[in-house]
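ugh ok fine here u go
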Amino acid sequence: MTAGDWTLETLVVGTSASFERCIEAADVDTFARLSGDSNPLHMEVAFAQALGHRDRVVHGALLTALASQLVGVHLPGRRSFLLSLKMDYVAPTYPGDIVVVSGNVRSIHLSQRAVMIKLTITCGDELRARGTAMVRVELR
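structure:
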C-alpha cells in the first residue's frame, strides 16, 4: 500500500503519516487574500508586536488547511472524504516557522466506512495545534 492511497481494509489503529512545511510570509499573505481575513494581527508586524508577538501570527485556519492536506494527500489520502474537523490552537505560529503536521488513526468505524484521526501540528518540540478529523474512506 502506498502512502496516500489507503483503503479502509488496509488501515489499522496506529497508522500514521506526517509532513513538514515551512510557512512563509507569502503563504500568510495569500491566505489572507483568499479568506478575506486581513486582521492586522496577521498582516502588520508592528500591530502583532504591540500585542506581545515576535512577528505576524499565522492564521489558525491556515494551520487547519494543512491538517486538511494531511487527510486529503497522506492519510488516508485520495480516497478520503472529510466529515468533520476540530482544531484547537495551543500556541501562535509565525512566518518562517517550520511545522510538522502529523496524523494517527485512533479508531475505525466499519459500518460508516470512517476513521477518526488524531492531528497534531508542532514546531520543534512545541505543540502549536491539535485536533481530530472524522474521515470517510471511499471505495474508489
